[in-house]
Design brief:
The complex is a heterotrimer of chains A (186), B (397) and C (600). With 186 residues, chain A is of the alpha+beta class. Chain A has five helices and five strands. Chain B has 397 residues and is an alpha+beta fold. Chain B folds into two domains: 63 residues, no CATH class; 287 residues, Cytochrome-c3 Hydrogenase, chain B (Orthogonal Bundle), CATH 1.10.645.10.
Chain lengths: 186, 397, 600
């Protein structure tokens, strides 16, 4: 794994290379070089098995992280090629010509994260959701709880108590509370 | 025989292709029929629909539609503590739920640095439950192939034998289908008293039936007529479509995560994954039938080699406040359907940032199935689908 | 394909004559002993800590009040109610249950036409499976969702610590504190038991989050003496800790000390962290008699509200019993100074060596101030009044402890006998042991108490540590006479004590006269409790006050006496211990504020 990385690191100007163990490594590559690198890894480094294409929402950095996970069946090792793209109007070059299943991943990512892959077949088709009008559901700022509360009807007649609060109400309701100090009072 | 029964229609003229490469199917021309197979159909694996465009009895286009089982498990796990992930994850694959438990546990252990602390006893028990899960999956899957050719007796035997294994699961884990046994840090119980003896009795009964299944399926003219040479996967497709597991091994590509990237205690077991070269439905069934024999043998090996006593869970942080530093990992195992992996990302909080499951059906049931169905008859759709062992929940998660 | 393939499938017909494997009537089929079916709960063991609710990934568990179960210290009075519309039978609630009261039975069949029947409180709503033994229980062995054993506190070895008055408890390191804080299940049961109702789970969470400044703010919300309390608190909270039901309770006291220890002794830093740099003066004045925990506590909270505080201390330094009653090896002076310096920095004026009632009268204080708080404590030793106890070589522990601090000469004899079984008795025993060690190079002390070993009021660890240091502790004997020969004390004659209280719970010890022993000693120290000195109350003032049993001044819940301007708290009203004093002072401060703002 290290040997392969030594070879490709200067070639693709890789940043943030992290080797987990002999059989797993993750690299970050620039967006414009990503598909080129994936192709290179497939054709020249023996990473012929495409495992997974995934996306992670780093909302705090305003970035989406795309991952191309490739497997080398000979050396039995896995490399994760990561690309950071903008969270606003995310778009990425399509890789559907490299492996036959990639268009499915891209279709799913389009629906779940709103990433566009121009030229990918059937990219506009619904994947798992029909008639979804809300924001892409796998983004971090899609509030699952809120959605469930608005869409479904909660069971009535349920209520719970926090033990500490309940004991305060029962056992020492008149406990004095100091006026809460905070920075603004300074 | 007269030549009219050997009619080979000339498909070169229609359906024509549009400029963008898609088929020009005009339903009003009365040359084509749309047929929805599923989402509720006894022949379809799980709740999945295949939209077929037919010219006569022949399929010219197929589209897989999923979403009927979408419950957003990946998202739900993102909103739960690390220890709460595994009871949710099991529903991502009904056929072999234990695989999900293992991957969640393994991922959290690797990222938090506890993967070296897992007691040996727990590792053996994890392997036992994974192999039992494979066995019950195959017991349903192998005779299930006979079911697609109306040999229903095979399905009935399969269900009965599977129930025997579920009885053992009930004893070991406290549940029949959703076991919730493999927990981050270890497992949730030692073998009950007398478990090995009862398991051995069940395995003996399964041994007898394995011969019966062979007689029913592989020495059967009907089965052969319907499966030999049908649904062929060429060897070159394996990498092109990302085909894994028994589907890949049936066309001569010997890949098995248990051998390639051994996990748990598989290095201590003696086995060689069966292969075939033809790549058709018959070959896939045959490989799976041999794997059935092998799994029974593996369970016997595990029960013989595992220690009698030991700790079942490593000393871990308090589950309520467990935080894992920022990191990412991909872990995989060999399920009954092939490489089954999970990409797990943590961000330093007490909940995962992203959990992405890679099920074999993701490629098998969509890209591959859509391609394989073109040019076949309606009657072969179920056979092809079942022979790929598709499982919709792991597609839509 | 051959002809064999046509006939082989017919072998399946051989199964036609076999018995069917289907179970004819599956209802009533017993599930496996480990099966996860419906819940049952032993509600007498359950303490309603709510960890089951916290771990439930489906929000299927609610904590609800149950009739007949009283909310009391160590029991929230709540019990888990399960919504089977959400439950997924994962049994994580069983695995984390702190009391092991919640289990799943292996009953799995139950039919009802009313969907709401499937929300019920196990153990309260009676079900047919409540008596079933089989079902899912917490797995064994070594399967725990949180740490069961306490992180041990590093201490000086007994032989080393008896050499000097140096503090022997070293305090947790960062790693140890975080490991200990990780064991907390954050149920909050302890909060009610703490007299000051400190936000215990919150400050333990601050340790986990490595945010000591936030931890400090949480501590000061209810307790302005964290350094002191973190060392010598009687930690009632740890007695009810839910983690302690099956395992060691959390080291709540040491964790509190850890937070306070992390902040450097710098009043500017304190003011910055606690946002107390600029407090607006409200032009009202309060006088406080004494500088013990209750006085300091009320001074702190009144200062925060802008009151001008003047404190009057009889002795040359502030701290009251904390400084003059508790030996240095348990509570070093720099820890006391650290807490007091910060309170003084808020503008509190302490007048030392001023005895109210002698140098200045209470009435004067009343005239000069808007209100007065008295937290004068218990500084008078009580005597056993047994024959010989008036001998000059019979001492009071409070006097000796005070002399050790002030540097006055303390008589140390070769053989010492101490009477008493409380923490003060242990303090004097261990202090004398150190003095003996320094003077004679050996320890020769016998401490005896009326109470037997199991009901000794002293903290268990105090007794154990005293023994480690070479002191002999013989509980269960009642003193009868200080034996005097030739005008010198030679020993203490005792009888075996059979019971301390009579049927009416009155103090009336019974002795076994046949079991008589004599503990040899050249001096005897009495440490059987202290009394209060209320001489600063003039006769006129006393007329306005109400007195209860044993001479205690009666106050209302807010520590206000019948004279509305006079508030009293601390050991003279409740306790005696530091944390009660702090709680009293806090409450009195809030009440004084209310009282003085009534006209507003």
């Amino acid at each position: 794994m290290k040997e392969i990385l030594d070879r490709i690191t200067p070639k693709y100007d890789l940043q943030d290379v992290s080797i987990k163990d002999d059989l797993q490594a993750y690299v970050v590559v620039e967006k414009k070089l990503a598909i080129d690198m994936v192709t290179y890894m497939r054709d020249y480094e023996g990473f012929s098995h495409f495992v997974l294409m995934s996306c992670v929402d780093w909302i705090e950095d305003n970035k989406l992280q795309l991952l191309y996970l490739l497997n080398n069946p000979e050396k039995k090792c896995v490399i994760g090629i990561k690309v950071f793209i903008d969270r606003e109007n995310p778009s990425m070059q399509s890789a559907h010509h490299l492996w036959k299943q990639i268009w499915t991943y891209q279709r799913e990512l389009r629906e779940a994260f709103g990433i566009d892959f121009p030229g990918s077949p059937r990219i506009e088709e619904n994947f798992v959701l029909e008639g979804w009008t809300d924001k892409p559901h796998m983004l971090r700022d899609f509030d699952t709880n809120k959605y469930a509360e608005e869409t479904y009807f909660p069971r009535t007649g349920r209520s719970t108590n926090d033990p500490a609060t309940y004991m305060r109400q029962k056992l020492y309701p008149n406990q004095p509370v100091t006026a809460k100090k905070n920075k603004d009072d300074e | 025989m007269s030549k009219i029964f050997d009619f080979k229609p000339d498909r070169s003229k229609y359906p024509a292709k549009k400029a963008d490469g898609t088929l020009d199917v005009d339903l009003r021309s009365q040359k084509y029929v749309k047929l929805w197979l599923g989402p509720n159909h006894p022949g379809v694996t799980g709740n999945m629909a295949v939209e077929l465009t037919l010219a006569g009895d022949e399929i010219v286009e197929a589209k897989t539609h999923v979403g009927y089982l979408h419950r957003g498990f990946e998202k739900l796990i993102e909103r739960r503590l690390y220890v709460q992930g595994f009871p949710t994850s099991i529903r991502m694959c009904v056929a072999e739920p234990d695989t999900n438990e293992y991957l969640i546990a393994r991922s959290t252990e690797v990222l938090s640095g506890y993967d070296k602390d897992i007691p040996e006893m727990a590792q053996w028990l994890r392997m036992l439950s994974l192999e039992m899960a494979r066995l019950q999956g195959l017991l349903r899957g192998v005779p299930g192939q006979a079911g697609t050719f109306s040999l229903g007796i095979g399905v009935q035997w399969g269900v009965y034998l599977r129930d025997l294994i579920l009885d053992r699961f009930e004893e070991l884990t406290g549940a029949r289908v959703y076991h919730m046994y493999i927990i981050p840090g270890g497992v949730r119980g030692l073998l009950p008293d007398g478990f090995k003896k009862r398991m051995e009795e069940n395995l003996k009964e399964i041994d007898n039936f394995i011969i019966r299944i062979r007689q029913l399926m592989f020495d059967n003219a009907i089965f052969k007529k319907r499966s030999v040479g049908i649904g062929v996967i060429p060897k070159e497709w394996v990498d092109l479509y990302g085909i894994v597991g028994t589907n890949a091994r049936a066309c001569g590509v010997k890949r098995d995560v248990r051998k390639d990237n051994p996990y748990l205690m598989y290095e201590q077991l003696d086995f060689d994954p069966p292969t075939a070269t033809e790549g058709d439905i018959y070959a896939r069934s045959w490989v799976r039938w041999q794997e059935l024999i092998q799994t029974v043998d593996l369970i016997r090996q595990i029960m013989a080699k595992m220690p009698e006593k030991g700790d079942i869970r490593a000393k871990m942080p308090n589950v309520l406040h467990w935080r894992i530093p920022k990191g990412e990992t991909y872990n995989k195992l060999e399920s009954g359907r092939g490489e089954y992996g999970m990409y797990y990302v943590t961000d330093g909080s007490d909940k995962p940032r992203r959990v992405n499951l890679r099920g074999p059906s993701y490629t098998h049931a969509i890209a591959l199935l859509e391609k394989m169905l073109i040019g076949t008859n309606i009657a072969d759709v179920h056979a092809t689908m079942v022979s790929l062992q598709t499982c919709p929940p792991e597609i839509e998660r | 394909m051959n002809i064999k393939d046509v006939f082989t499938p017919f072998t399946t017909w051989s199964k036609v004559v076999k018995d069917p494997v289907t179970i004819k009537n599956p209802i009533g089929r017993e599930a496996a002993p480990r099966y996860r079916g419906f819940h049952k709960n032993d509600i007498d063991v359950c303490i309603g800590c709510g960890t089951c609710e916290a771990i439930c990934e489906n929000q299927a568990i609610d904590l609800v009040p149950v009739e007949g179960i009283e909310t009391k210290s160590g029991d929230s009075g709540l019990r888990p109610r399960i919504d089977y519309g959400r439950c997924c039978w994962c049994a994580l609630c069983v695995d984390i249950c702190t009391t092991n009261s919640l289990n799943l039975t292996n009953e799995y069949t139950w039919v009802d036409t009313d969907p709401d029947a499937f929300i019920f409180t196990p153990g309260v709503d009676k079900k047919s499976w409540d008596t079933k033994e089989e079902g899912w229980k917490k797995p064994v062995p070594n399967y725990h969702f949180y740490g069961q054993t306490r992180v041990p506190m590093e201490e000086l070895h007994a032989e080393e610590r008896v050499e000097s008055f140096v503090e022997f408890v070293k305090g947790y390191s960062k790693k140890q504190a975080e490991e200990e804080a990780d064991r907390c299940v954050a149920c909050g049961i302890c909060t009610a038991t703490c007299p000051a109702h400190m936000g215990i789970p919150d400050y333990i969470a601050a340790i986990r989050n490595e945010d000591m400044e936030e931890g400090m703010r949480i501590l000061y919300d209810t307790n302005p003496l964290p350094e002191i309390c973190g060392r010598i608190c009687t930690h009632k909270c740890e007695d009810v800790c839910s983690v302690g039901v099956n395992g060691d309770p959390l080291s709540i006291r040491w964790l509190k000390r850890y937070i306070a220890d992390q902040i450097p002794a710098d009043v500017d830093k304190y003011n910055e962290i606690l946002y107390t740099k600029d407090i607006k003066n409200n032009n009202k004045k309060v006088a406080i008699i004494g500088t013990g925990p209750s006085s300091l506590s009320s001074a702190y909270y009144l200062s925060l509200l802008g009151y001008k505080i003047t404190m009057y201390e009889k002795l040359p330094q502030a701290g009251g019993m904390m400084r003059y009653g508790i030996p240095e090896y348990r509570l070093p002076y720099d820890a006391i100074d650290k807490d007091i310096d910060y309170i003084v920095s808020l503008g509190v004026d302490i007048k030392y060596n001023v005895t109210v009632g002698k140098d200045i009268t209470l009435e004067q204080l009343h005239e000069e101030n808007d209100a007065v708080f008295a937290g004068t404590g218990l500084h008078l030793g009580r005597s056993t009044r047994i024959p010989g106890s008036d001998h000059e070589n019979v001492y009071q522990s409070v006097d000796l402890l005070r002399d050790i601090v002030t540097g006055a000469e303390v008589p140390v004899e070769r053989k010492v006998v101490v009477i008493g079984g409380g923490n003060v008795a242990m303090d004097i025993t261990r202090s004398m042991a150190r003095l003996q060690k320094a003077k004679y190079g050996e320890v020769n002390i016998i401490t005896t108490s009326l109470e037997s070993e199991d009901i000794m009021p002293a903290d268990r660890e105090e007794v154990v540590e005293a023994r480690e240091e070479g002191c002999t502790i013989i509980p269960g004997y009642g003193p009868q006479e200080v034996m005097i020969e030739n005008g010198k004390v030679v020993g203490l004659r005792v009888w075996k004590c059979l019971s301390i209280f009579d049927e009416n719970h009155n103090f009336n010890p019974k002795f076994d006269e046949s079991d008589e022993r004599v503990f040899e000693g050249d001096m005897v120290i009495e440490s059987i409790g202290q009394g209060m000195d209320l001489s600063y109350l003039s006769e006129d003032t006393k007329k306005g006050l109400e007195f209860g049993p044993r001479g205690r001044v009666q106050t209302n819940d807010n520590f206000q006496t019948s004279l509305p301007w006079l508030f009293m708290g601390g050991d003279i009203i409740q306790g005696p211990d530091v944390i009660h004093g702090i709680a009293n002072g806090h409450r009195a401060a809030m009440a004084i504020d209310d009282f003085l703002n009534q006209g507003r």
